[in-house]
Each structure stands twice: as C-alpha cells, then as structure tokens.
C-alpha cells in the first residue's frame, strides 16, 4: 500500500462488505492488489433477509462456506393462499439457508485473510473521480484508488453519485424471524414454503433455519400497496404458523433487475461509469422471478475482480470487460426469468394450477438453481412442454382475470 500526503492510495476501493463486496475484495487481494474495504457497519451485523442461496453457489465458492449454512433444502412446498399444499422435491440440494450476519462475516473474514485492509463503522460520505483516479471520503479520512467498486446495497451511494439517471425501482418486502425453540421447522427441515397467491404480484415464503423461520412477503411490481396487510394475511393463512408468535416484520427493498437497468435512454451503462462499477444489489442484480440476490452478488463480485485483474493497467478496458461478462453470463438469464415473472405474478392462481399439472417442468427448473443448466436453456423445453395446452390455458387465464 502506497501512502500519499493526507490520504492512503490503493489499487481498488470496495464500498460495502456484503457478499458482493467481500467476494470482490478477497479475489483482488489474493492476486496481490492493494484493496481497501469500507463498510458503515461492523461485522458481524444482523441484516433482514430470507437468506436463500441457490445451490449453484457450490460451483463458484470454496466449500468452507458450508460452515455457516443453517439448512440444506431439497424441496419446495407450493401453496395458494395457504391451501392445497404441493411438495416437489429433488434428489440433491436446490438451495442453502443462511443467516446473513454469519454468512457475511464469513466472507469478510475471507477477505481479511486475503490481505484486504478492512475498515468498518465509518460510512462513506462522499465520492469523486477525476481523470487520474477516485477519491472516497469517510469521517475518518480520504482514500484514493484507480477503481471503486460500489457494493453498498440497494440504496448505493456509489450508484447515486455516478449513475444519477438509473432506475430507482426497488420491490418492497416485509420479513420477520419466528423462533421455533424445540419445535420442528415448518414446512420441514429440508423444505421451504412458497405461497404464490400470498401477494398481488409476488409471493410469500417460509424458510427454515436452525433456530427459527424466516417469514416474509414480497411484491415484485411498481404499485405495491398495503404490504403490511398482505403480510398479516399470509401469516394468518399459513397453517404452519398457527399458534406461533410472529414478531413485527421489518421492511427492506429488493432491487430486482428490470430491462431498464441495462441501458439508459442516452445509451449510458447502468453498471460502469468512469472508474466506478457496481456489483450485487447496488447494480440491481437480483433475479426478477424469486428475488434471489446473494448468488448474483457473489458472482458479480467475482466477475468484477476477474475483469480488473485481467486489465490492471487499463481501467476503461477493465470496466468494459466486466460489463461484457454480465451481458454474457447473468443478464440473459434475467431476461428469461423476468418474462416468467410477468406471467406467473399476473395469473398466480393459474400459475399454481400449472405447477401441479407440470411438476416435471418444476423439476427441470431445479436444475437451474443447482447450476446444471441455465434459464436460457430451460425456457425452450418448458415452452414446448406447455404448448399442447396453450389455448386452454389462455382461456382459463382470461376467465381467472
């Protein structure tokens, strides 16, 4: 680390040490770069989050993360407004459940061991860039780097400073943690519950953890209203929560990806600008179908690190390489899951009937979550499977509207 007058100079500054930021910082530090990681909160710190991590994470993280996994999930119990449970299972894990305080702390410790200079408890108050680098100001000092990685979540300061015209859309969610003490988890130790009729355009969930249940609802639409009433109704209708005390839920935004995130009206990038790039929630890299963000946070952090390392002497090419990687690996799947979400959340009752009728299609989608295929490859098979009854389904959809 080089030291300048009145400030410290690094190769890269990472703002935010959630999964995206900690992963990027660790990868860059392991390769020998001088990296500063900044976070306004000390770790470990509690974060409201369902903590669902698709099993494809096995393909991109070292197995040490298993030490903080609360439960492995092999099946999903689908319901519609708490009724008609449908259990669809896989012979291998489709997801892992984590508590974000333990999981994020594990990743931060990995970055620390890799050599990242980590400073927490003092948030970033301002960021500026010039032709020669980036300056990041905290209450404790000023730091300079060649590149800044914005990993500071849904309300990203980096995004506000360098991407002023980006979409501000964030889907609302409410979530509570329910203690189960010695009672068995619901719907099961290795099963999550998804209620496709719980929200107007979204779903309700119950995720099992070691000592409790993560219970929540999310509305993946721009005009969500009365989400608290939606949450209360979901809790009342969920059979497995009967007789349990459900604490008051906390709200948090889910920055789901939309097509408007890809390019601005002026053709500007929504992911890179000057010497800044966005990863994870700050980049709105959250799956539009289920709202999964942790896997994409980690993967985008890795892609960012790979791009920077491949072009250490050319920040423009590093940022361009990162954007190309998103275009090749992540965004095509988001385009598919966004199309699926529009249909499923527009016709939730019909979607539930389809789940029951085409359970093999759900099994195929499990392979997407396991990283054995992609959403792009999944969709043509699913469309072919559904094509035979498309006319009946359209008529039924019109009737249900």
Relevant terms:
7-stranded mixed sheet, alpha+beta, 27% strand, disordered N terminus, 401 residues
Structural class: alpha+beta
Measured by DSSP, the beta-strand proportion falls in 25-35%
Radius of gyration: 21 Å
- The count of DSSP E runs of length 2 or more, i.e. the number of strands, is 19
- Count the DSSP helices: 11
Distance between the termini: 62 Å
Q: What's the average pLDDT?
A: 90
Q: pLDDT below 50 for ≥5 consecutive residues: which ranges?
A: 1-6
Percentage of residues assigned to helices: 25-40%
Largest sheet: 9 strands, mixed
In one word, what is the shape? globular
SSE order, as H and E?
A: EEHEEEEEEHEEEEHEEEEHEEEHHHHHHH
Describe the structure.
The chain has 401 residues and is an alpha+beta fold. Helix content is 34%, strand content 27%. Strands 1, 2, 3, 9, 10, 11, 12, 18 and 19 form a 9-stranded mixed β-sheet that branches. Strands 7-6-14-15-16-13-17 form a 7-stranded mixed β-sheet, with helices on both faces. Strand 15 (202-208) and strand 16 (212-219) form a beta hairpin. Helix 1 runs parallel beside helix 2 (100-114) and helix 9 (359-369) runs antiparallel to helix 10. The longest helix has 17 residues, at 294-310. The termini are far apart. The relative contact order is 0.15. Mean pLDDT is 90; it is low at 1-6.
